Amino acid sequence: MNKDAKICGQLPDWILKTNEPQSITACGQNYGNMIYWYAVAKFAKDKNIAMDHPAHVHESLANGRHYDKYFDIRANQIGRSEYENLIEFKKLTQQHNIKLKFLLSIGCQYYHSEIFSIPDKIRFELEEIFESFDKVNLRGFYTESVLSHNKINYNFDVLGCPSSYLLQDIDIQFKESKIDDKILLTRPGAYDTLQLRTLFNNLQNIDGCSSLYQTEREDRVDKSPPNCIERFFKKVKNADFVFGTRIHGSVAALSQGTPCICIAIDSRTKELCEIMHIPFVDWWDLKIRDSLETIKNKEDLSKFINKHFDIDCQRIKKQSIKMQEYLTSLFID
Question: Which of 44, 79, 166, 298 gets the most CB atoms within 10 Å of its CB?
Fold first, then answer.
C-alpha cells in the first residue's frame, strides 16, 4: 500500500510492487499487457503520481484514508466478463462513496470490422456503467460506431491505447530494400486460426527470421520469452524489422526506433493501428492475404515490406502527445 496515494485504480498488483517501470515483469501475462501497463506505470512515474490498487480500498478506508480519484484502465473488449467486472468495481466504490472518475481504453472486438448488435440486457448495464464515470475513453472509432449503432450515447473520448504515450520521441530510419538479417516475427496466439499459424510457421523458416511468442506457454523456440520489459525492448531494438500480428509488439518496436508492420487480424488491432497511426496491413483484405501467403523467401518478404511499409512519425508523435495531455488532464487536477 502506498501511504502517499491519492488515486485508487484498477492496476495489477505486480505494477505496484516496484518503483521502477523498467523492472516490471509479465508475471504470467502476455507481453501485450506488459507494454500496456508499462506505459501507464511510466506515465505515473514521470508525473510523480502515487496509486493504490482497489484491493487496498477497504483497509485504507478503515484506517481513515481518502482517495481523490478512482480509475479503471482496461484493454479488453466490451463483453460479458468485462462488464461484470466493471459492475463489481462500481459496487465497491459505491459502498465507500468513491467517485468513479475515468475509464480508459475500452473497446468492442470482432474478427471483421463489422457493426453488430449488443443484447438489451448488456446494453442497459453498459449505459449505466458509462454514466458512472466522469470520462470514458474508447480505443478507436470502430468501437464508437458499434456503440452508436446500439444507441449507447455518451460523450466518449476516442484516443486509442495509453501505450501511445511511449511514442513521443519516435524516430524511424528505414532504408527501402535493405532488410538485413534480423526480422522479428510477433506471432499470433495459440488460439488464432490455422491459416495464420501456418503462415507464420512458413515465415519463421525464412533465413534471418525469428519468432517472438506472445506468452511463455506458447514459446517453443528460445525458451526465454520476453517476460521482462528491459529484455523485451532489447529484442525489438536489435531487430532490423518487426513484422506480425501483435499491436503492442509494434508499439514497442517503434518506441525503440525499429520499423514495423502490424498485420491487423481483427477489429481491435485495426482500430488501434488507425488511431495511433501504426503501419499496418489488413488481414481481411484478400489481396493482402494472398500476397502474404505467396511469401517464400527473404526476397519475397522484403518486396512485401517495401511495398506496404508507410509511416508518418509526425502523426504518431502528435497522437502520443494528445494521449499524454489527456492522461495528464485525468490524473492531475
Answer: 166
Residues 157 and 30 in one domain: yes
Please check whether residues 15 and 160 belong to one and the same domain: yes
Please state whether beta strands 157-158 and 183-186 pair in parallel, antiparallel, or not at all (unpaired).
Answer: unpaired
Kindly state the greatest CA–CA separation across the chain.
Answer: 66
- Structural domain harbouring 220: 167-312
Per DSSP, the residues of 97-130 read: TPPEEEEEEEB---SSS---PPPHHHHHHHHHHH
Under 8 Å between Cβ of 308 and 176: no
> 24 and 132 share a domain?
yes
Instruction: Confirm if 138 and 107 have CB atoms less than 8 A apart.
Output: yes
Residues 140 and 183 placed together within one structural domain of the fold: no
- Do 152 and 221 lie in one domain? The reply is no
State the residue for C-alpha cell 523498467.
22
The grid cell for 265 is 487480424
| Residues 203, 305 within the same domain | yes
Owner of C-alpha cell 440486457: 121
In a domain, residue 195? The reply is yes
Residue 1 placed within a domain: no
- Asked if residue 196 belongs to a domain, the reply is yes
Domain-located, residue 147: yes
Question: What is the count of structural domains for the chain?
Answer: 2
- pTM (2 decimals)? 0.85
